[in-house]
Amino acid sequence: MTDPDLLISAYLFGTLTDEQSAELCGWIMADPANARTFAKATLADRIIRDRIMGNANQRLEQTVVEGEDLVLLASDALGDINPNVIQELLKEAEADDKSVSTGDANQSEPSEPEDKPKVKRKSKKWDAVLPHGGQEHQPIEFSASWIYWGAAALLAIAFFALRNSDLPSPIVQPRVADVVSESVVGPVIAKLSHSLGVEWAVASGSNGASGSNGRESARPVTSKPGSPLRPGEYRLVRGRVWMAFNDGAVVGVTAPALFTLENARRMRLSRGKLVGYCIAEARGFEVETPCTSTVDLGTEFGVQVDAGGVTEVHVLAGKVAVRPVSKSKKLGGQFELVAGHASRVGMRGQVTKIGLRPTTFRNVRLPLGRNLIVNGDFETDAPGEFLGGNPARVRDVYISGWRDQTGATTLSYEGPNSDRELAIEKDLFPEDRGRCYFIGIEVGTISQSIDVSRLAGQIDAGQVTFDLSGWLGGYLDQPDALAVIAIALDEYQEEMKIAQLGPVVSDDRDGRSGFFRRAASGDIPRGARSIRIELVTTTGVDPATNLMDSYADNLSLNLSLKETPAE
Amino acid sequence: MSDQDKSSVQELAVRWTQAQPTVAAFISATIPSFHDSEDVLQRVAATLVTKYAKYDPERPFVAWALGIARIEVLRYRSEVGKDRMIFDEEVVRQIARAYEQIIPHVDEMREVLNRCVKQLRGRVKQVLEMRYLRELAPARIAQQLGMTSNAVFVALHRSRVALRKCMQQGLGQQEGNG
Predict the structure, then answer these.
(1) DSSP single-letter state for residue A547
(2) What is the dihedral of CA A160, A162, A167, A168, to 10 degrees?
(3) CA distance A150 to B111
(4) Residue A210 has pLDDT above 60, yes or no
(5) Are strands A266-277 and A286-288 parallel, antiparallel or unpaired?
(6) How close A402 gets to chain B, by Cα (Å)?
């Protein structure tokens, strides 16, 4: 068997063959101690990766103290080491290469499982990289990457929740507002719509000097929405940006990414991933990668390019035309991909069908063209149960996606609660009702917040509209009522009610038990950064059962871009 | 929002900050693609927020978060198909159990390894940076440095072994000092 330590290295460095994969799996499963060795090795690898990424940035590091304060930690001075040792290591490696195969354990340094006692090392040169005996007292350090993700992501969620009093979707707020100087070379072809935690690589030879590949160097931008973007190469080190092109396409890019803006209808993604959203006017928007040219045909699509240039195209809505390209030559064989499908294209133009993975692009997807209400159909959780009795009792369940601190719950349309469920007249069931519906048990509100800040630029231009709809109802002639309210909040959490559905009272239902569809639409007000959806049960507890019978199902909020931006 | 809710959110933030490196490492260990592993990490964070009301404080938070991460990794596996995953479901479970067992050592490992990494110099540092910072495959690193792929692999492997030894010695000294 191949040395497990070499297998782990091959796994970590992406050179594992199929045969070695099977060996590694077998070894991990053979003994829990092996699994622990693998766990320690992969944990160490992550620590090293994060540390190196942190060192590269040499930024102020932030950490959290008791969840309240951000404390700035200065980077420590580097320790001592003899650089000759490292050079010799590389020479050894190169010399060994003449006879070493990555899969041949005999030619590489013997490995030492972490759990075993240390044995004599092959070379004492490694002593030079050992720490200084642990005699210095050093505080526990947090790598920049961990701090960024751990503190920024979760505290942003917490921060947002504190401000909104709602459980939000997870939003990463910017850790540092990176603002760099702006170049004024070239025409403005797009504007920055929104950014989160952005850090751009400092362009070599900015202000007109050539960057990589002989292209114009990166055009630095400010992080402010509306900042102009000009043709050039951009290197995004951290964070996410959303850009609105003059011809109507909106593109979100997540770091790490290298991309080039060419004109208002075309960009090139050399590495990283993006999501493009194109309204009808923007059809024909083109995304080039090292091995594909993808032309939008009215859609939402994701493109991911790995370090080797291999490209995946995922169509989330509508369709695109994909043409494999090799060294800037179009290979022919253009094909169309429609919603729900994805393909991978290799550097030699080979095309492979793959499964659609919309979650891969979750970080940069735009809140457009799909239902933004999480669990609006109340199908996520197993339903509660009507237990009968007087006063009536219902087994309450937590409703995922909603801030639910009331007695509200979900019930099944086809549960054992026959005397109640059968009273809902079948012609008054919601369309596509699924299994479960919402029922208000007591006066109260459940809510959720939807982040729309990725569309800040379009919202502030008055370009975003909404469609809110849902099925609301109640039981016989009982007076219970329920309304769905949509409230827009700006960055200061100032609220503006933008729509209300319902209530659908007994008179609206002619005293029948069931659901009626209600809908509203309009413009998202300028300045809005989130939308809170509230389900409010307001009046009329049934005195006989002490149970509210206000129902809701299939709630939906969709945002769209206007074809022509407002003035 | 009540004071109790605020306290709960703060508590979650603190716990996640402590648990996140371990959870991230577990996800990275089971999902080779860095992009995809970061996606799954975000999904775990989102799930933790929505499920936090059900968290039992008597149980270690890291273990609870690892349990959710395991579910999300398996969900990812079912989404992307088996061909994109090296490990099958049983192996993922075995690795998750192993991660739970090494939780007590994580802080020490991190502290010592961070010191070790800071002492790297020269081309080894360069090779590691090309691998981790620029996410280049060994073949691309070899191309850029004028080396062979095998030489780069061996250099990376030996760097890993050396850092591990550095860590082992550091941990031993910490224990000795302790």
Answers:
(1) B
(2) -10
(3) 17
(4) no
(5) parallel
(6) 8
Q: Which two tokens stand for residue B93?
A: 């479970």
**Residue of A79, A101, A170 with shortest CB distance to B46:** A170
Mean pLDDT within A547-553: 81
**Residue A286 to residue A302: CA distance in whole angstroms:** 12
Provide the whole-model pTM.
0.50
Under DSSP, the state recorded for A203 is: P
Looking at residue A286, its pLDDT comes to 93
From residue B81, give the alpha-carbon distance in Å to each of A28, A365, A400, B67: 21, 22, 26, 21
Average pLDDT over residues B36-57: 85
Residue A133, min C-alpha distance to chain B (Å) = 6
Residue type for A90, please?
L
Q: Is the pLDDT of residue A11 over 50?
A: yes
Q: Which residue has the tokens 């493009």?
A: A276
pLDDT at A217 over 60: no
Among A353, A522, A364, A355, which residue's Cα sits nearest to residue A451? A364
Confidence of residue A370 (pLDDT cuts 50, 70, 90): confident
Quick check: A281 pLDDT over 50? yes
When the pLDDT of each residue in chain B is averaged and rounded to a whole number, the result is 82
Residue A382 confidence (pLDDT): 82
* Distance, CA of A495 to chain centre: 26
Q: Is A134 on the interface with B (CB under 8 A)?
A: yes
Copy the structure tokens of residue A561: 């871009």
Order of strands across the sheet that contains A482-490: A444-451, A528-537, A482-490, A495-501
B25 interaction partners in chain A (CB closer than 8 Å): 42-43, 45-47
Q: Closest Cα partner for A355 from A324, A315, A321?
A: A315
ipTM attached to this prediction:
0.91
* Burial degree of A557 (CB within 10 A; 0-12, 13-18, 19+): buried
Q: Of chain A residues 496-515, which have a CB less than 8 A from chain B?
A: none
By CB atoms closer than 10 A (0-12, 13-18, 19+), residue A508 is middle
Residue A182 has pLDDT above 50, yes or no: no
Judged against a pLDDT cut of 90, whether residue A267 lies above it is answered with yes
Q: State the DSSP code for A490.
A: E
Closest among A486, A488, A494, A493 to A534, alpha carbons compared: A486
Q: Which of A171, A162, A173, A150 is nearest to A403 (CA)?
A: A162
Q: How confident is the model at residue B166 (pLDDT cuts 50, 70, 90)?
A: confident
Higher model confidence: residue A55 or residue A224? A224
SS3 letters across B29-85: HHCCCHHHHHHHHHHHHHHHHHHHHHCCCCCCHHHHHHHHHHHHHHHHHHHHCHHHC
Hey, which residues 118-137 in chain B have their CB within 8 Å of chain A? 118-125, 127-129, 131-137
E strands along A230-277, which residues? 232-245, 250-263, 266-277
Dump the DSSP string for A114-176.
TTSPP---S-GGGGGGS-STT-S--PPP--HHHIIIIIIIHHHHHHHHHHHSSPBPP----SS
- Look at residue A196 and give its three-state secondary structure: strand
Among residues of chain A, what percentage have pLDDT more than 90?
25
CB A107 within 8 A of CB B158: no
